[in-house]
């Protein structure tokens, strides 16, 4: 017994358990061609959001379709340890319990971090199962797994030994909230309204080495957005070509408040046009100032603690936050007469991609990866050889810009959660370290380097920093198959390179480009062939969805309300590659309505009584031939769409096939008469077509399609839809499709007249045709059935006393019956004719106006000409109808 309505929740739980029980998602190397996807690993402590929903639905569509097409489909799931985000959560949890991270040893802290990860780490993967994701869960990876960490350490040691990783004292991006350095790519620049502070520096009379007195009334003014950094000033710089400041050459200035005397230096780096033309130089807190400092041998004064509070150089502001100090020091400068003025100023402020904190430039010893040579194969693969394709291709320009302007990658982080840097120190000097996979190997290297066999592991101290999380995930497509540490293993040789990567354009550089770089460095080939870049999910107001804005629906609540299939369809119908989705719950409702449509079509077919003795009607035979052609045309179209990663277009094509062609036309064409059986030949073909539809739909709507598939007949596990055979492309008669489109217009004309003249469908009518188009008669049996035409006759001339309409140049006449009031019909048509002629006169008046035609946009003129053509055609039809009635 088929339920009147399907229960999405019941179906989803039932079939996911069935798929898992029968191990359909698992993959092992065999004789088949592999099709491989690796999941962009979400943060281990994260939960499902709308971006995940979209991204993973697309991946599931690709993997399920590949499975149906006979590939050995392997979708590797996993999670990322997310150093900064996870450590921040653990630190916050400890703080709530009265525990300070700094009071713990590294091992003690890591125990808390693992406890947190084990408690919350599997949440998002379990949520993906509710969406229907058919990942090979046996292959689930975590970037901190022992084998994954071994790959990261192997990579670091290898690159160090190649001379590509080095330790350097450089200006870095410091996140004062996470208390760690960030790479350039993790800094997001935002335009913010701030102030420009104009500060007066008194000039020192340096005529005598003993005199250090300010010259009366002689000052120079410096404009800065960060007045708190004056405590780190070690020079004032002017442009040697600036005639305004010739009198300042060779002199010194006094830093307000702290009273430190600093030199006035000259350098053409200073922009004469910006601000006052004078530049305060703080080498410890600005990249460009650092370069000036090195060039002019300036002192370096770091004024900040690691949390961006001021240190002892900040005098009475010590311990205060930089932004609080900014306001307070501006007030003090004003009181001292050192603040000339302030102006509002719009400037770009660097913020942390993770914590959103304002970045502080800071000098620090860090580990860097030299990118100049590593990046070359990655540039060639995408931009020259076309080995890797980005969809949409417009992102090639972004990729090109990033890689051609790449800087060395800062890969060290001042964190404990992550792979600890495998550098071991044996002395106090900057070069007193070795790099090795473990402390035992490090000891051997240290003994060799120092020529001291007395060294023991007790003399070695491992670097306290962890590696950037991206330095782990850039190995992901290789590491999940053990390809970094053991490139000859069976899995890696079979599954690598993978096929498709589905991700967001926001991590095109963070992750995608770096995986390509790593692939060529370690495997000598690409990590994947195609990169499908999804858009961002936005609300109806085009705002990016976020919990802070409160505009992001809860994904699991959407599944509960609309069913997983409904949500998947709703998302994908508007998810063209690279374009943002303006999400509206109505999309999911549309998906749910589509589910109901399919369910009701299935119920209709299964509700028919079947007879194997009655002959097949001609209309059913024609309908089947047409639908088989339509199915093949759809297959061809969606193959093309998938090749170009136009999944939204592919789904819409299938949607129209099922909703319009199958449900609205095909089923109506073959439907038996009231309380009449259907012939078995037609019924079997209807089931065959339904099954073909289910195969096309399954990647998009896995639960509903498997339910109907299994209800059609009893199936063994080997016959489940998830492992069925995808429909095969075959030659088809395209003329059947165009001829039926013509027949649809004929049928629509008949129905329009029935509706307009209140002729019930149960009343059979006659139809006479002047076949000026020489249209095929192949679909006449269908026209007879769907129009309830008692007779269809082809005639040479128009029929008097009949209602008429046109399809192209063909004329169709329905003789008048006693149910029509002829006089009323003539009056109605006459009124409509008068109105249409008046409308035509108005349009032609516009088109005859030379000024209008010369000044109006081309599209407006085209629209007016179309109105003219439509009106002329309507007048002809109305006049013919009137002539037939008189």
Structural account:
With 886 residues, the chain is α/β, with parallel strands linked by helices. Among the domains are: 188-360, Valyl/Leucyl/Isoleucyl-tRNA synthetase, editing domain (Isoleucyl-tRNA Synthetase, domain 2); 584-732, Orthogonal Bundle (Isoleucyl-tRNA Synthetase, Domain 1), CATH 1.10.730; 767-885, no CATH class. Strands 7, 8, 9, 10, 11, 12 and 13 form a seven-stranded mixed beta sheet that branches. α3 (83-96) packs across α4, α9 (376-383) runs antiparallel to α10 (395-404) and α18 (585-606) packs parallel to α20 (647-670). It starts with 7 loop residues before the first helix and ends with a helix. Mean pLDDT is 91; it is low at 208-212.
Uncertain runs: 208-212
Q: Average pLDDT, to the nearest integer?
A: 91
Helix count from the secondary structure assignment: 27
Helix fraction, binned, reads 40-55%
CATH homologous superfamily identity of the domain at 188-360: Valyl/Leucyl/Isoleucyl-tRNA synthetase, editing domain
First and last CA, distance = 58 Å
Query: What is the level 1 CATH name of the domain at 188-360?
Result: Alpha Beta
Specify the overall morphology.
globular
CATH topology of the domain at 188-360: Isoleucyl-tRNA Synthetase, domain 2
Task: Please give the number of β-strands.
Answer: 31
Q: Let me know the largest β-sheet.
A: 7 strands, mixed
CATH architecture of the domain at 188-360: Alpha-Beta Complex
Strand content: 15-25%
Question: Rg to the nearest angstrom?
Answer: 37 Å
Q: Which class of secondary structure composition applies to the elements?
A: alpha/beta
